[in-house]
Amino acid sequence: MRFRGTASGPRCPETVALPEPPTGAHDSAAARIRSTLDWLANPSLAPALDSGERTEVPVANRILPAVLLLAAPLALGDGINVAELDAAAAALQPEVIEWRRDFHRHPELANRETRTSAAVAKHLRSLGLEVRTGIARTGVVAIVQGGLPGPTILLRADMDALPVTEKTDVPFRSSATGEFRGRTVGVMHACGHDAHTAILMGAAEILAGFRDRLRGRVLLVFQPAEEGVPEGERGGAPLMLDEGLLAIAKPEAAFALHVGSMLNTGQVMLRPGPLMAGSDFFRILVTGRQSHGARPWKGIDPIVVSAEIVGAFQTIVSRQTDITDLPAVVTIGAISGGVRHNIIPDTVELLGTIRTFSEASRQDVIERMRRIATNVAAASGATATLELMPAPNPPLVNDPALTERVTRSLQRALGDDAVSMSRMLTVGEDFAYIARAVPSVYWWVGITPAGTDPAAAPDNHSEHFLVDEAGIQVGLRSLLHVAVDFLQGEMTP
Question: CATH number of 25-277+395-488: 1.10.1200.10, 3.40.630.10, 2.40.160.10, 1.20.1260.110?
């Protein structure tokens, strides 16, 4: 078995000679497994990784657990067992952490993930994989071909960051800037996509290392633009599908995860059926008549009209929607109008989002918004037009039968108490497009440190969003266990 690279980043492939195990090697392997599993169960026992320094990890030290484990008798014929999979994940942990920190230092906005995708492609090529780049602008795809017959699965990670100015105090915090809607903004991995990308890179290396005994094949998908594309552009999962993603390999199942501050480290959650809401983004243009701020009766004030529209929108969910059936959300996230203190402007722009869990609910909310905006504006002599942005996300629906299977895998990997049933979440995710085309399961991985109340932790998309790096190992192990269990059947210890 071969692993490549150092904690400072990917490098070209190297071959590691595997010596015959000495007398008592199996006992040493068992002790190493016990040690590994001890700190996997209790992240506080893990080596310290919270400094900003790069740590060189000799290749021999990183592969030793896997080397010794491969010398031990294996269950399921030539299959992969739990202990060696976990040991490989533990050995690779420093490198996965360093990849994540590098991506965090250098975040890139949607459809601009050029540095990130280049690093991903370089790493995948170092594993001897055939890599395709440029799918949906900056997407990267590769296949790990197993040496044994079996099914095909898809594993996906998103790569883009957000227009957020970071305010954490980690030594690898971002100072990057970018352009968003014509403005210079800070850029931050405020939703954990840096962790997702590093986790899938780690899974790729481990699965490639086991490829001779791996059943089936794994389609690795590193996706750009999950957070939405700039106006006038296309991207993300819909564009990857339109450009032939599923023609590269036809997966029988697809899997993805997301780190979240709503859970403590070591915890994961999922649910069968609808997990995450469908999301629409909208723009409302309110047009009045410009006038002097000292003589408002000479004009029609679109700022006042906009405020009335925002207030009236609150009744859509609170008074007009049966939220005991399915949740719904209408949020105004940005208001822009006027340039000077004593000028009533001609127009005001409102930007916002809608979250629903069915097409019927979506259409009902949109119609109510259109009616309110039009009539409230008309009452003041103004006009209001509602425009929906292209490519809304549908609800993300987990396949029920596959979710049951994945739940068993997660419970075996992490323990029964670590896996919980999620409620329906009003955040959106364009993995929903893949889930419409392929039976899929998506789950959440906790990254709020033990002892910290998740309700008090900075939320995803916050400028203070912080990832407990012990949760990255949980994410890596969960993805590996789910993937290998599906490919070869349930693993043995």
Answer: 3.40.630.10
